[in-house]
Every structure is written in C-alpha cells, then in structure tokens.
Amino acid sequence: MDNFNFEDLSPPPFPKGLPTIELPKISLSKLLNDDEIEAQTLFDICTRTGFFYLDLMDHPKGRKFWESACIARQAGKRVMSTLPMEEKDTFKKRPEVGILDRGYNCTIRDENGQTKYVESINLPRDELFPSKPTSFQLPTWLAKDEENFKAIMREGNTISNIVFGILERQLKLASGTFTSCHRLADPSHSFLRILRYPGLKAGQALDKPRFFSHRDIVSIAILFTWVCGLQIPKENPDMIGPDEETEESWRWVEPLPGHAIVNLGDAMSIFTNNKLKSGKHRVVTAYGEQSQIDRCSVLVSTRPGHETPMKAFISPVIPEDTPEQAKAEVMTSEYWGDLCVRKFIEEKVKGKA
C-alpha cells in the first residue's frame, strides 16, 4: 500500500455512552479451515439477525480484501470530495428505473447544488466482468483505479461464496446450490458502491436519518466503514407498527479495524423461507467528534444471477411453502431485484425526501 494515507483511516475515537450492539465476530481463517464450531456459529447468527463482524486479519485472503477496500475508499473519497458536481454527474446511471448498480448518484442536494446527505459511486460488476463484449468504460477520473475495483469484486465474490458454501452444508442442501447462483461473470446487477456522507457543517441540525431503514435487496452485503453511523435494531425490538421499531430500539454498530460488517439480504431469506434472516439497518449522522468529518464507506454487494428463480429451495431444514406461496408466480432474480428497488425508491426515498 505505497503512498497510502493511514491517518485517513484513523478518525476520532468512537463516541462514549452510545447504546451499541455487540455483533458476534466470525473468523475468516476458521471458516476456510472448516472449523465446525465456527460454521455452526455463523449459521446460528444467520438464523437470528443476519449481521456479524468478519475478522479479515487472520488470513492472507482477508488481509488482501481489507487492503483493496482501503484503497477503494481513498479513491472514492478523493473524487467525491474534490470533483465538481457537473463532472461527477457525467458518470451516468442506467436509464432504467430500479437499477442502481452503475453511475454517480446524489438524490438530495442542498441550496448550492452540493451533496446534502449522501452521494455514491456505483461500479457495475456486470460491465467490469462482462460475459460478452461491451463498450463500457469508466470515466477518466476512475479509470486508474479499475484494477483495484476488479480486485475487490473478485475478493468479495470469493468470500461471499465461502459463506454460501457453509450455509449450504448447514441447511443440508447439495453442494453448489447457492454458489452456482453467484458466479462472478454471470449477469446479476451486483455492484461495488463507495459512499460519502458529508460531515456536519457548523450549526447544521440532525434532522433525519441519512439512509432510511431497510433490508438489502441482495444475497449478501459486505461493508467496510471507519466512522459511526450504521445502526441496527436490538434483538426483539419494541415495535410501533408492522415493520417499524421504536427509536429506542436502534443500536449503534462500532466499526472495528480489520473487520468487515456482513449482513444477509432478502434473497437469502426468500431462498430459505425466512430460515435465514435478512438484516435490517439504517444510516444516521455520526455522533460527537466523528460527526464533523466525512463518513466514507465501501460496500460489496452480491446478487443472484439474473435467471435464478426467486423461490425457496427444498431441504429438511427449510420450511415448506405455504399453499399461497406454492400458487404464487415465481420471479427471476433480475425482475425481482429491479421491482424491489423501484418500490423502495417510491416508498422511502421519494416519499420522505
């Protein structure tokens, strides 16, 4: 990591006194060495909250993944905090509504046309690992980092499939049931996303969450973050509606050096009739001294291949379909994912902007 600014990865200390949740830690080295106790621990977590820390420092594959994420964060922060908005806007999103795997995105801007809450660079795995020739090119201000972007996508796919393989065994599914749905070069709208949440300006009020509560419309999400802001509900939260927790039920997640924060998404819940849980979360403004600095994060998300049927697999561990489920139309992953994203945009983003 030559010429790397390590001080940039050392923000002010995590604020004291916040209500936090202590996520369980999973060792990548133990998973790779077929540790049965660690595999069972992983499975138990995925049937409860779907959230865990993954220790990447105890294996060379993990350390390389961490290094790639640090470099991607630095690249994203550099361009998002310095480039003019009109330049960033030249990296176009897909024209189809509901597909957010490509382009620069900043939905809400302030009175000066600058980022108000969050901006992101979205790098499409489908174009960076194309199954057929493509004319896609990254903008010049990202092109020099393309090989590192590819590296983190490859590493993320490898580690995701390690988790999928363990879940296959724990669910008594045939080897390859999940991993065959998540091959690197299969079109899937999987993505690498680098996010920047600007620090608060002097006198700026904390008026809303910076990213609304949701579950990810993916199979697995691997998050690298260095500043507080991620929150998840406590287990058995107090509810004020069918899918709405009380404010007191939300807990801060402390970023840990050398660890990724991993959560399962809605696809894994569908594949197992909710035996595996999709992790609900939100992003709020950082607290204390950390609120004054930019919060930059790197997210590696994996979706099933486009043609994957979105239905539960059959296993003695997976609950059977209800009569209503058995009669329902089965969507492909591509149609399901795009439909869910459109619904989220309409209900959460546009409805509460």
Describe the 3D structure.
It contains 10 helices and 14 strands. With 353 residues, the protein is α+β, with helices and mostly antiparallel strands. The strands form 3 sheets. The chain has an 8-stranded mixed sheet with strand order 1-2-12-7-14-5-4-3. The termini are far apart.
Percent in strands: 15-25%
For the secondary structure, the number of strands is 14
- Give the rounded overall mean pLDDT: 92
Number of helices: 10
Strand order of the largest sheet: 1-2-12-7-14-5-4-3
Distance between the termini: 40 Å
The shape is globular
Radius of gyration: 20 Å
Main attributes?
single chain; 14 strands; globular; alpha+beta; 30% helix; 353 residues; eight-stranded mixed sheet
Task: Give the topology.
Elements: E1 25-27, H1 28-32, H2 36-46, E2 51-55, H3 60-82, H4 85-88, E3 103-105, E4 119-124, H5 125-128, H6 140-143, H7 146-170, E5 191-197, E6 211-215, E7 220-225, E8 230-233, E9 239-241, E10 244-245, E11 250-252, E12 259-264, H8 266-271, E13 280-283, E14 295-302, H9 323-327, H10 333-352
Parallel strand pairs: 1-2
Antiparallel strand pairs: 2-12, 3-4, 4-5, 5-14, 6-13, 7-12, 7-14, 8-11, 8-13, 9-10
